[in-house]
Amino acid sequence: MKNALLRAVSASLALAVFAHVAAPPAEAQSERRQQKQAQKKRQAPVAPISSEGPLLLQVSLNDQRMYVYDRNGLVTQTRISSGRPGHDTPVGIYSILEKKVDHTSNIYLDAKMPHMQRLTQTGIALHGGVIPGHPASGGCVRLPFDFARRIFEHTSINERVVIAPDVRAPVAFSHPTLFSQLPSASRSVIREGSAPRKSGIDVAETLLGISPAHAATEPAGRTLESAAEARVAKRDRLMAAVTRAAERRAAAAEAEKSAQQAVTDARAAARIAKTESSKLSRAAAQARNALRQRERALKRAQSRVPKNTQRVRADRLAELQDGVKQEEARVAETAADAKRSADASSKAAEKAEAADAAIKSAQDAVKTARAEGRDAASAESDAKTAVADFDRQEANRDLPVSVFISSKTGKIMIRQGFESVLEADVEIANPEVPLNTFVFTAIDWADASKTHLTWMAVEVSENSDATGEEIRQRRRGREVAELPPETNADRATRTLDRITISKEAAERIAEVVKPGSALIVSDYDKARSETRYRGTDFIVQMPEVVAKITRPTPRPVRQETVQDSGSFFWWGSPPPPRERRRAGPRHRQPASASNRGVW
């Protein structure tokens, strides 16, 4: 009894001491949380983001910052958190492909990704998240929650996002290779008494001041209206091709129907001919048998006539010789019947063979008609696809155009509304020398004619000269960091000087170019891993990175804690038995405040 009382008192004292020791940290943590909340309330409200024209978002991996530019320059900047080691955010040029206010990851345990702006179809995006001051995401670019919400309201689909170790600020830029839109007849004003209009390239150069690479060459000069008329005519041609293919298919179906009927008729005629041929063949066989019988009867009659006629009475000899003559006459008559039957049977067999040939010919006609029908149906499907592609391109004509020139492939590729418009060869001087990577963005119309455009240029490089210590110093501290250095405009000029765009590509671009359009020039090719997805734009990864995550992360298994012993222990005594964990039913455990994160 005494021992039990001592144990109870000791346990009570131990619990009191433990509670006294553990309480201050909990109270201190609560006090610190209250101080932080009060400090946030005392902070001045964040200034709203104001932008004009298309935006360019640049993410510096070394600085762990994002800089936002519009046509007037820097709009705002913020801290970010990129991919942690092993899940590095790939360097490259991207476009905003999709925007969702509330998005849930299908890779990282249904993690919440508020104000998500998709950059690739393989899991890279901008979204709100925790910013610990170093790379910590699974490959995405995390933005502060409030900043993600505010910038979400200003960005648009297809606006460019540059991710690089070190970024450069864009600069105003102009070059003859950069595109201008076709003139509009409704906006062209011809003064009275002015000199007569020139034609073709001279008109474009005189009235618009655009380079010959982007000017019209038709006798009357190209305008937006003439280009629209040409598109109407092209669609009419495409619809005419659909109509012709449909008519071919209908004619082939009718021909197949007629050929099938011919097969049916030929088979019926063949059955009749074969029946008649079989009947006459049997009659011919019977006639041949009768002839053989008559011939045997003739031989018997001839055998009755003795060789020595001197020994036979005259009347008997005359009777035997009359019998031979009668048999010879019967043989001759039967032979004639057999010949007629054989001739008739041969003719019937020829008719049956002709009927079989008619069946084969009709069947060949059916095969030909079916092949023609398949070809016509394929041509009709291709023509309808061409019309659908044309209509999609027409529906996208109000959207900015994306142009990509790669010295690696020697191609110029044009997309609009995430749809391919044209791919053609491009001439690059000294192709063995790599091109520098630049993004040229049309930011506004140069004047009221809405023909010329103003452009800004930004250089993108996958290389960085910064050391590890320099990178750590740059990431520390400040809400507002030093601005990136400006892009070298002379280098951009030298890059475009080497490029000659074909007339076809220049004319297609001149019809649709507008503010927000972009020209990307690079020594890299577009990311082939992204081209298999619909609804994507030119993604240039430097170098291309194949997505590492190909399947969702496995769900955690809920674990239960089982205490081996529930007895008290004395201070200074051995530690209590370790807890052992037992797997429970397979279902998700609610995330706690400590492990709830966003990738």
TrEMBL record:
Domain called L,D-TPase catalytic: residue spans: 55-164
Entry keyword set: Cell shape, Cell wall biogenesis/degradation, Peptidoglycan synthesis, Signal, Transferase
Biased composition (Basic residues): 579-589
BP-aspect Gene Ontology terms: cell wall organization; peptidoglycan-protein cross-linking; regulation of cell shape
Entry-linked InterPro entries: LD-transpeptidase, LD_TPept_cat_dom, Transpep_catalytic_dom, UCP029342
Region feature Disordered, mapped onto this chain: 27-47, 280-347, 553-599
Active-site residue list: H127, C140
GO MF term set: peptidoglycan L,D-transpeptidase activity; transferase activity
Pfam families: YkuD (PF03734)
Protein's UniProt keywords contain Cell wall biogenesis/degradation: yes
Signal peptide boundaries: 1-28
KW Membrane (keyword) present: no
A Gene Ontology cellular-component term: extracellular region
PANTHER family: L,D-TRANSPEPTIDASE (PTHR30582), L,D-TRANSPEPTIDASE YCIB-RELATED (PTHR30582:SF2)
Family to which the UniProt record says this protein belongs: Belongs to the YkuD family.
Identification of the protein by name: L,D-TPase catalytic domain-containing protein
Phylogenetic placement of the source organism: Bacteria, Pseudomonadati, Pseudomonadota, Alphaproteobacteria, Hyphomicrobiales
